[in-house]
Amino acid sequence: MEGEGAAVWQGAVLGGILFWIVFASYLDVTRKLRSFFQPWVSHHVETQTSVVLKIQSYGFGFLDALFSGLSCVVSVPFYTGFLPLLFWSGHGKLARQMTLLMAFCDYLGNCIKDVVSAPRPASPPVKRVTATKDEEENALEYGLPSSHTLNTVCLSGYLLHYVLTHTQIQGAYITYLGISLAFMLVLLIGLGRIYLGMHSVVDVLAGLLVGLVILAFWLTVHEHIDSFVISGQNVTSFWAVLSFLLLFAYPTPELPTPSFEFHTAFNGVALGIVAGVQQTYHQFHHGDVPRLFSSELSVLVFAGRMLVGIPTILTVKFCSKALAKWTIPMVANTLGIPIKSTSYIPTLNGSAAVKKSDKLKQGYMQKLLFRYKYKAFDVDTGIRFLQYAGLAWSVVDLVPSLFSYMSL
C-alpha cells in the first residue's frame, strides 16, 4: 500500500507539471505575465537610476573590493565548490538540504527573471563593476529579482535554522546573534548589488521578498523532502523524470540569457546528489558518520579528503561532458531528431539550418512528439545537464567510496 501511495502522489506531481507545460504554452502565459509586469518593473529600474548613482558616488577602491568579494562568496560557483566540502566533512543532511534548496532558488529566481525580462540599471550612466568572469555572465541576465539577495536570504536562513535545531549551539543569545549576522549579511549583499551597478532597489527588494517566501516554504517541507530522498520509493526514477520536465517547464525570455544554462546545471546537480545519496545513504551519509574536528575526522584527514576528492570530481566532470558529447548526438541521430550545438560541438553549429532533404529524414520519434514540425534541438542542454549530474553523483558516491577504500 505504501508503494502504491507513493506512485499516486508522484504521478500526480509529474502529471501536474506536464499539464502546466502544455497549459502555459497553449495560453502563452509567459508573454501575458511579461506584458503585465515588465513595464512596471522597467519604470522603477529607470526611475531608481538616481538612487544607484547616489550610492555609487560614495565609492572608492575598498568598497569595490569589499562588495565584489562578498558577491563572489554568495555566488553559485562558490556554493558549487563549497557544498562538496560540506558533504565530505560529515554534515550530509545540511549539505543535501542546502544543495536542493539552492537548486530550488536557482530555478524559481531565474524563472521570474526570464518571465519579467526587466533590464538591469542602464550602464552608462551607472558604473557596472564586474570583477570576475562570473559577474560578467551575471550581467547578461535580466535584473529582477536579485539572485544574490534571494540566495543569501534562503541559505543563510536555512543554515541558521539548522544550527539552532540540529546542534548543541543554542540559547537566546546565540539566536539573536545568528539573526543579527544573517540580517547584516543580507543587508551588505543587497547594498553591494546596488553599489556594483548590477541591480536597482526594486530588484533587491524583490529578491528579499521572494527569498523569504521560499525560505518559509522550505522550512515547512524540508524534513519531508529529506525523508523521501533517503528512504522513499522510486526516488531516482521520480527525480530523473522531474528533472527532465523542469527543463521544459521554464519560460522563454524576451532575449537569450545565461539563466537557463544556470538552471540546467543545478538541475543536474540536484539529480546527481539525490541519486547518489539514495544509493549510499547507509554507507556514507547517515547521521553517525564522523564529522570534521572529531577524533575520527581530523583536519589532516579532511585535507587528505580534499586532495583526493577535488581532482576526482573534476575528472568525472570532464569525462561526463566528453561522454555526453558522444552519446547524445548518437542517440538523437538514431531517433531521427535534428540537433544543433551553440558551443560544445562546433561541427553542429550549422545544424539548425533547415533543408528539404532534412525534413524527409525525420524519424518516428520526432513526428510523434512534434506533429511533423521541424525543429532542431540544442544538445548543449543535455550535455550540461549530464555533466553536472555526473559531477554531483561523484561527490556523494564515487568519492566517499574512495575515502572508504583509502581509510580517509
Automatic annotation (TrEMBL):
<protein>
    <recommendedName>
        <fullName>Phosphatidic acid phosphatase type 2/haloperoxidase domain-containing protein</fullName>
    </recommendedName>
</protein>
<dbReference type="InterPro" id="IPR000326">
    <property type="entry name" value="PAP2/HPO"/>
</dbReference>
<feature type="domain" description="Phosphatidic acid phosphatase type 2/haloperoxidase">
    <location>
        <begin position="95"/>
        <end position="219"/>
    </location>
</feature>
<dbReference type="GO" id="GO:0005789">
    <property type="term" value="C:endoplasmic reticulum membrane"/>
</dbReference>
<feature type="transmembrane region" description="Helical">
    <location>
        <begin position="7"/>
        <end position="27"/>
    </location>
</feature>
<comment type="similarity">
    <text>Belongs to the type 2 lipid phosphate phosphatase family.</text>
</comment>
<keyword id="KW-1133">Transmembrane helix</keyword>
<keyword id="KW-0472">Membrane</keyword>
<dbReference type="GO" id="GO:0042392">
    <property type="term" value="F:sphingosine-1-phosphate phosphatase activity"/>
</dbReference>
<dbReference type="InterPro" id="IPR036938">
    <property type="entry name" value="PAP2/HPO_sf"/>
</dbReference>
<feature type="transmembrane region" description="Helical">
    <location>
        <begin position="228"/>
        <end position="250"/>
    </location>
</feature>
<dbReference type="Pfam" id="PF01569">
    <property type="entry name" value="PAP2"/>
</dbReference>
<feature type="transmembrane region" description="Helical">
    <location>
        <begin position="201"/>
        <end position="221"/>
    </location>
</feature>
<keyword id="KW-0378">Hydrolase</keyword>
<keyword id="KW-0256">Endoplasmic reticulum</keyword>
<keyword id="KW-0812">Transmembrane</keyword>
<feature type="transmembrane region" description="Helical">
    <location>
        <begin position="173"/>
        <end position="195"/>
    </location>
</feature>
<feature type="transmembrane region" description="Helical">
    <location>
        <begin position="65"/>
        <end position="88"/>
    </location>
</feature>
